Amino acid sequence: MTSQPAKKLLILPGDGIGPEVMQEVRHIIAWLEAKRGLSFAITEDLVGGASLAQYGEPIRDDVIEQARAADAVLFGSVGDPRWNHVGFEKRPELAILKLRQELALFANLRPAKVFDALVDASTLKPDVVRGLDIMIVRETVGGIYFGNPRGIETLADGSKRGINTEVYTTSEIERVARVAFDLARKRSNRVCSVEKCNVMESGLLWKEVVTDLHAREYADVELTHMLADNCAMQLVRNPRQFDVLVTGNLFGDLLSDLASMLTGSLGMLPSATLGAADSAGKCPALYEPIHGSAPDIAGQGIANPIAQILSFAMLLRYSFDYQAEAQLIEEAVAAVLANGLRTADIMSEGKTRVSTSEMGAAIVNELDKAQA
Ligand code: IPM
Ligand code: MG
């Protein structure tokens, strides 16, 4: 049993299946408090479409301040087709983009790990994905998502032009590459840096900066470079060649969705987005599943809560250093899968189909067994 001051946790369930899968995390939090003596000071608020409906904006400044004050943020997902018609300044997605920007959460860690029990759930052959364990480190506060100029302008002939700009500076590239090299040292010690230096100056600089940093500080780590299009191909051809991948915002968005499907389901994968530690050593951090709000299945009780639960396990591990509890949760998830329980997204013949809440309850049950 640990007895430490309560950890300040901000929970933002968001839209669609977000609130449903977050409910299963609450059961796990209750279990940790009851059975492991942990204590959390939890605040909750609305983001995304839920916040737009209530307050007319995707995220309030007050929520950003709560996120700053928290020890960690557990995020669900945002996105709601009812707001498809509104401009970028009012889209539900702005909630996550603003949190990343305001808290300077520049390094998005997206693991793609294949559970043994789910090796058949992948659309790729079991031999290609068995044992897969890669980590994509995606830059999240720069690149074409935020570069200027941007906008849609009207030309003299009345037609329009849409503009976005890919921009990266030396320091932006260095800080995210550092995260990748540091992670690699704790894994298989290999980093592949991904850009399009054959057509983009920002990619050329990316490659130069990563190469220089490697030579200066990380010569013990194996570094390779790959063009982003080739990387997409290699991820499908032979994904196990990779350990840590580091790339910019847009390529990372694409490649991490691609990599996640190697594991069989988007519903399985957590992510962490980290900022730089302040002078007191506090590191802003937000944890969220890779999947979105899945409005097509929201409210039916069939969503897979595992990605949200594993995001919480990552939070325990990276932000609170509760290694034992994180491992307990990860093992409970593996056990439930080994027992053949499956939500709809990972269902296969001969397995037992369960609802969101049944999956959550089964994981808590495994926790109980492990603790007994
Ligand atoms: C993600 C999502 C977001 C992104 C959206 C919701 C803005 O796709 O986290 O990958 O593009 O970064
Ligand atoms: Mg995405």
TrEMBL record:
Domain of life: Bacteria
Protein's job: Catalyzes the oxidation of 3-carboxy-2-hydroxy-4-methylpentanoate (3-isopropylmalate) to 3-carboxy-4-methyl-2-oxopentanoate. The product decarboxylates to 4-methyl-2 oxopentanoate.
Official protein name in the record: 3-isopropylmalate dehydrogenase
Pathway: Amino-acid biosynthesis; L-leucine biosynthesis; L-leucine from 3-methyl-2-oxobutanoate: step 3/4
Keyword Lipid metabolism listed: no
Top EC category: oxidoreductase
Species the sequence originates in: Acetobacter orientalis
HAMAP family: LeuB_type1 (MF_01033)
Subcellular localization, as worded in the UniProt entry: Cytoplasm
EC annotation from Swiss-Prot or TrEMBL: 1.1.1.85
InterPro entries, per database record: IsoCit/isopropylmalate_DH_CS, IsoPropMal-DH-like_dom, Isopropylmalate_DH
Site, Important for catalysis: residue positions: 145, 196
